[in-house]
Amino acid sequence: MADKLGLLAGKGDLPKRIVQKCVSEGRPFHIIAFKGQTEPELVAGHPHTWVRLGAAGKTLSILKEENVKSLLMAGPIKRPSLVAIRPDAWGLKFLAKTGAAAFGDDGLLTRIIHALEGEGFKVIGAHDVLEDLLAPKGILGKTKPDEQAEKDIQKAFQIAHAMGELDIGQACVVQDGLVLAVEAIEGTDKMLERCLDVKRDGFGGVLVKAKKPNQEKRADLPTIGVATLINAHKAGLRGVAVEANGSIIVDQDKVISKADELGLFLMGIE
Amino acid sequence: MADKLGLLAGKGDLPKRIVQKCVSEGRPFHIIAFKGQTEPELVAGHPHTWVRLGAAGKTLSILKEENVKSLLMAGPIKRPSLVAIRPDAWGLKFLAKTGAAAFGDDGLLTRIIHALEGEGFKVIGAHDVLEDLLAPKGILGKTKPDEQAEKDIQKAFQIAHAMGELDIGQACVVQDGLVLAVEAIEGTDKMLERCLDVKRDGFGGVLVKAKKPNQEKRADLPTIGVATLINAHKAGLRGVAVEANGSIIVDQDKVISKADELGLFLMGIE
């Protein structure tokens, strides 16, 4: 049987799928729920402890007491200001060592992972627990992008990578060569909302999500789900492309069905 | 007396200031108003012709009939899809020659300017007509940025430049090292609106606007006005920095007064 899993839980569907998987396989687990971040429904009826995000030392003690061996971070965590974090002693030491204030989300996560490994934990990714989570390469549904969409995908992919290099975000929307929206920390759904106001007539745009070039694969890979397809459709887009083997599709079968139902293309690109 | 000016008018305050200046100096002018783009109040009582954005050939004929020598583009023009433009014969020739579909806003504007020069017009910038329009270097109001704000300005400036190199946009907001928002084509005011939802506790962020590295100075320089300061304040920001000699402050005195009134810093950086 797999060793006991510690789940550092952010928002969204991914932590739910991890919990379901552990339950169905009988794998022991303990959820670390962060106040103001983790959704309370996630932990109901499951072993869990609520902690402040800044209570890093306490969190590590709990994980050790619970005899957790492997750690998994899943779901986005909203990074508060350093003032609001109120780091405990371990947290202060970590921040002093890394100068984390200067880093974007990605640099910070990589450093957190290394610090957790330094405490003796094995840090794994959501795709190590859930099979079929990483996006495969190729066209995944029935709809195919036309020539214009292909061009927009190429441009959007290039821009998403440039954004990633600057540690800004992971997604953008391009229509007919024009960049309609670029994601910072508002999240993909919010970004899609504003596309409806700025989109041009003619063929709709495309959403592309790509991992940051230096992104730690065990934390916060770009993720899409059924809701992403619904919101992309509402925003007047024609399809969604994500980085193959570098992004997560939660409930892949359902997402492909939804894409087919809405007439959107869905693909993994490299 | 200055020669007759043709004003290709987009939205906002800048075209109004140009018209006021021409009227006050008795400089002859003719406004080209674009359907669905130019604000009707701008042209009321002034010599003007309404044209479709795609009616490039007709626009040039009007300007020549009106004996216009110098041309000035002022105020943002919303780029429609190529389908919606319905270019006339001149427009089609221009598009065929430049392959404009593949360009972002900036590349397109540069090519439009060169084409207008090829038709014998002198193309000038708004700052050639209005003095004190370009942002000067230094702190412009009473409030000074602190060390944290200085760091955020540096980071935001670097990001705005990178966005500009990719021809995405000209503005971004950074708080405590975190990129809160990046502007694509939604415009600065819309970008500021969403900062309120994503901002962190603690010291507020900064807005930086910079011209694109290859930007044609005679078209669409990053622009701020009194409304920008008001919206930055509403968004919880602590100040605004714009590229010195590469961005426009409309009604500079009023903008500085507003910054002082709201306690925001306002500065030109290089």
From TrEMBL, chains A, B:
It comes from the Bacteria. It comes from Candidatus Terasakiella magnetica. Residues 4-133 form the LpxI N-terminal domain. This is UDP-2,3-diacylglucosamine pyrophosphatase. Residues 136-267 form the LpxI C-terminal domain.
